Structure formats: C-alpha cells, structure tokens
Amino acid sequence: LVATADPITFATDEAGWYALHVNANDLAVRGACPLWFLATVLLPEGGATEAAVERLFADIGEACAELGVSLIGGHTEVTSGLPRPIVSGCMLGEVAKDRLVTTGGARPGDTLLLTKGVPLEGTAIIARERAAEAERRGVAADVVKRARDLLRRPGISVVPEARAACAAARVHAMHDPTEGGVATACWELAQAAEVGVRVDRERIPVLREGRALCEAFGLDPLGTIASGSLLLAVAASDAERVAEACRGAGVDCTAIGRVTEAAQGVSLTSGGHARPMPTFPQDEITRLFAES
Q1: Residue bearing the bigger pLDDT, 291 or 101
Q2: What domains, with CATH codes, occur in the chain?
Q3: Is the pTM of this model over 0.90?
Q4: Residue 13: its pLDDT value, please?
Q5: In the Cβ-directed half-sphere of 56, how many Cα atoms lie within 13 Å?
Q6: For residue range 107-154, what is the model confidence (pLDDT) as tens digits?
Q7: What is the DSSP annotation of 101-122?
Q8: For the chain, how are helix, strand and coil distributed in percent, rounded to 5?
C-alpha cells in the first residue's frame, strides 16, 4: 500500500481536477497504481455557493473516471480568511514490493530523462489566472489560449508515461517536478540518492508558451511549478528503450543529463560551461500571487 497527500493552493480553476491528478502523480512516481482518493475541500466565505461546490466535485469525479480511481471520502467546510478555495487530497494505491520505485534510487552513470516540457502546470496556471494581464504584457492571445489548454493537452498526469517506463525497463528513480520546478526536482533527486547530477540546459524542453509567459512576468521557467513532466533516472543502456516506451504512450521524452558521483555536485551546463543548479526556496509562481 502506498499513500500520499498533496494540496492545491495556487490554482482556483478546476482545483478538484488538479488535486486528483497531482496526487495520482505522487503514486505513479513510486511505480504504484492510484486507486482510492479522499478530498478535503476548504471554501472561502462568500465563495461557497451550491453551484461552485457541485462544479468542484464534478471535476473530481471526472478526473477519477479518467484514471479509474474511486472517491471514498473527505471533508468539506467554509473557512474564514481564505482568498481562494483549497483542495487537499489523499491518494492510496498499490504496487508490488519488488516494483517499488523511489526518488533515492538514482545511480552514478544513469541517464536523466524528462517527459513533455516545462513548466507545464505553471504555464497553464499563469494563463488561467492572469490571462488579461499576460496579454497586456505583450503575450499573444493565441499563446495564452494554448497555454490554458496545456492543462488537458498534453495534460498534467504522468501516470501514462510512468506505467510505460516501468513496463519497459527497471527504472531506478522517478520524481515529478512540482513546486520549485525541474531545478528543484534535480536537487531533490540528487539529495535523496546522495549522488550528483549534471544537466544540459539546452536539452531541457522548455515549452514555447511557458517561455513566453515566464518572460512576460519575469519568472525563471526552471523554478516554476512543472507538474505534468516526469523526471526519470535509468541505466544508460535502458535510456532509449524507456524513452521509446514513453513516446509509444503518446508522451515526448528527452535525455537531459546524467547522474554523477556526489562529489561533482548538482550542475547546469550551458555552452559547455557548468555552474551550480539554481535553487528556488519558493516556487517562482508564488511571486505572481504575492503581487496580487
């Protein structure tokens, strides 16, 4: 049995749908199948209309149906002092003991793979929460629309590629880059395994829409919430097989670097020059909400 808990605090649009998929992702990176979900829903005073609550739970139900998950319980209340609804989820699932994957399993010599592009979730959040302001800052309306749609296409679920990868080869480690983006995910993977990581910045697939929106708001895409992408560490001999399995599941997959000895640290190379991977004590997107 594998369990996780994760809240949705940045987004208001489709927060219930977000919560289900983000929690399912936490189990998928353990090689587990998400099966049962509980949701705690905190609603702001004045924003707890019957229609709003029904819509939120309809979104949760839709996401459950997409992954074959059962909603088995939870709690709902109106809470004073909240600026927006908060949905905190708990997901339970199962995995065979000998197939459990951990963040700390990466080994020196492994290839690092990244699926889709970054910052997927952050791009969608900015477009959904700050669309008018983005256009005022010079981002084209069609770019904002495409960014909004990233939530569904290619989507923030990493369940399909995690399943495909685990079926194709022995995956040493998986991590979903959430708060703090792909840079923070690299640090966390390295620290968990007590290894080093060397990433080629030019190989990181930064979404065009994400680049445009991050530039407009002065955010670093490498430190912006990136749910929807999956970071994997696999033996170099298995890397192409795993990448092809992900592509076979309809998900882009790119080799972005390698795992090194711990003494080499966590670095980002650009133009052949290495520097320490940047750190983000807070996700870049929090600056948008702090300024509002």
Answers
A1: 101
A2: 2-98 (3.30.1330.10), 103-291 (3.90.650.10)
A3: yes
A4: 75
A5: 26
A6: 999 999 999 999 999 999 999 999 999 999 999 999 999 999 999 999
A7: --GGG--TTPEEEEES-BTHHH
A8: 45, 25, 30
